[in-house]
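re: ur msg from earlier - yeah i can do the NAI complex, just paste it... oh wait u already did. ok heres what im feeding in:
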Amino acid sequence: MFAAMRGEKLESLHLFTDEPSGLEAIVAIHNTRLGPALGGCRYQPYASFEEATADAMRLARDMSYKGALAGLEYGGGKAVILRHPHVDNRAALFEAFGRSIESLRGRYLTAIDSGTSSADMDCIALHTRHVTSTTEAGDPSVHTASGVLMGMRAVARARLGQSNLRDVRIMLQGLGNVGYSLAEQLVAEGADVMVADLDPGRVRLAADELGVEPVALAGVYEAQCDIFAPCGLGAVLNFDTVSQLRCAAVAGAANNQLADAAVAEQLVSRGILYAPDYVINAGGLLYVALTHQGVAPGVIAGRIEQIEERLDSIFQQSEAEARSPATIADQQAEAILFS
Ligand code: NAI
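and the outut:
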């Protein structure tokens, strides 16, 4: 375990149990150089404790990189609550987790993530103030979408020679909380939007309400477009899918889009510009972190807009040094976190 922690440069790993509620939770704190570790709480089944721990550690590291490049005074952390079928009192479970977080005395600040809801955060908030994305704080998805829109402007400038998204053809994969909001914002900007989702109901809704063009799931990667926007699950960019792409750039909200690091080089060799996922999708993180600090909404919106400038600088450095944008982003984050 210590070797795995050293491998991820993890500061600490905390395990919590609570017999009455059935809580079994892991909190991974990656880096607190910039401030307390901030990161979501996942609630899902895992095949083993080792798998859950590895997930928490990797995700905590990703949060450090994301926070560093978003200019936040927070480090990276992540929590995983193991989902067991015998646990039936959800409120008691999350209240117990709230007490666990409180025992860390502010070193870790939790948030909504896969499998958790604002209602769960409300239960945590009964026992600690080190929690964001409660019902009162609001859903970060729309802010994630706004940040992606800003990032797409940087992409359009770098690759299409225009600073707005008017008539830019975008293939949007995934119409969930972020994807649907992004589709709305893109249509308002005058973009030409195609959409696909595993759920045909979401696609129908978007086509009816927004006038976007539905694309069959099988045709998503081959769709001729300017920007391919992955907004569903992670790891959608692999050797096979990247060879099918017919776009000038990839820019979307999904976390961990690259199935492995070599895919970044494949994108470069195909002449496809890649907006590093943790840079372009930081709008939601900025929203939850700054809302927690009591920053005014107008100031938060301005910080989310800066995603555009951050990507401008990454693309320029990538061009100047002939290295992939993913490599440049990692180097910029590591300079902040470890130098
Ligand atoms: P969500 O669960 O609300 O929506 C995901 C949507 O993608 C669903 O409608 C699902 O049917 C669809 N989908 C999944 N795989 C697909 C595929 N292969 N083809 C087409 N559609 C597919 O999730 P949400 O919150 O919208 O997040 C989307 C992505 O953005 C996730 O990867 C998430 O980790 C990431 N993200 C979300 C943030 C947020 O503020 N919600 C913040 C940063 C990243």
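cool cool. The first helix runs from residue 2 to 8. ping me if u need the other ligands too
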